Amino acid sequence: MEVHPDAGPGPVSSRCPSGAPTGARRDAPFAGRAPKLASALFIVSVLLWNPAGARGADPPANAPTDQQLGAALAAAERLLEMGRGEEALTLIRPVADARPDSQQAAFTTGLAALAAADVAVGKGIKHTDSAVKENYNLAVRAFRGMLVADPSQLRVRLELARALFSRGNCIQPPSNLFKHLLGDDCWAAEQHFIRVLGADVPPQVAFNVRRFIQICRARKRATGSLSLALAPDTNVNTSTSAQTVNIFGLPFQLDDQARATSGIGVVAAFGSEIQRPIPKFKWMPGAAVRLRVGGSVFRREYSGGEFDDYNYGLYAGPRFITSKGQMSLLFQADKRAVNGRPYSRQYGLRFEGVRLVTRRLWVGGSVEGSRQTALGTQGAIGGPGFSWNAQSFASFAVLPSLNVRFMAGSGRENTDRLATRHRSRWLGVMGTYDLPFGFTLTGAQQYFLTDFDQPNALFSPEPPHTRLWFTRAALHNRKIQVMGFSPSLSLIRENRSSNLTLYQYQRYRAEGGVVRVF
After folding, report:
1. Which region among 36-40, 213-217, 350-354 has the lowest average model confidence (pLDDT)?
2. pTM higher than 0.90, yes or no?
């Protein structure tokens, strides 16, 4: 069945921030409770607007007591149950502002703001209306603030995902691509929904969440990524730190230019993609189909330009989206330069996909083959050769706030630059953990094995074989955000061993920049 991007799969939770979510929200009016509700509203209004009579001679300004807070919460929740979100918001918002210590008040405020916005949209008011936007923004701020303090709150994460989904800044084709990329609600909602699946939720909730994820992906009209970092590096030229090497069995001393050089660089990466709906394929009637057209740019710049690295490319092809995953077939082309000199250009096909196996486990990967031509300062080096690369992953949600990914890959570079022909294999594991107080910690460990085809006659009759350990630790704080980005710090260590001394090195670098948060 075709996904309808502007329709939701239905609600997935009730309105309590603790406990396991239910399969549906309780929105039926409470018949026969109007007298009790009116009495509660009267008591709450008296307590809030006459604090002196309720709390004594010198009450703190704008600080309702626990009793007053409880009465306000009870009244607001009853209004929500009756479908009167705007009234509930008017009642509970000043209480939540006066009692920032109350998580329940913040949660109820978020629910009331979301309900008020949804009711307005249901009446035909546009998402771009200032009042509607403010209510959606208030709901997102309330839920996001609670998750920053305690990322284990499943119900809050679920409601934040629903608020982002309802706000839906990604529905229409963007008039300003950069602003759209900074506020991609579909991407952010999808990330939270995926994390919800990592918890023990009822089957109906899991089904609804999968539908939400499918619709988030089908709604997208543009996606993108942006990163920028300052990168001090102890070995910008990835060279050996050894003083001497053996040439024809005799020791020779290396000059300073051939040994490890430290420096400070700037690393930047940008990617953008436009998606458009296209007709369904008969052999996949249950999948939404989108045409993807995009590109990416990567640059690593050092003073003088001798050790710069850059890559830029374009791609296009169809994307198939189902309730349990997605896959794409892309034509791609790119060009790369290494150490300030042209390195290669290539074009070919790439197949990639991801699928939900269980609620906690996603598997996926990619396979690509290309015609690759080696480049030098004078142009092409020989003709094109066939190169390929394959990788796979299994992502397991231990908790909604803790994800572990296992990775593996293999590849082959085959060009007429004989010195760089090689085969490679690698394994890796990466974990991401959302901590209290807004901190997110990411750690990764990868092991690369590279076997070159040709020996380096000056140093050994045997081809070089290298083994590289790559370690990365990164930390950022979700509480600190500017336009959707958070400052981050990454520490990276590379340790490569080889049968040839010239290929051995150690490298340490730090990257201080920003990351996109959701």
Report:
1. 36-40
2. no
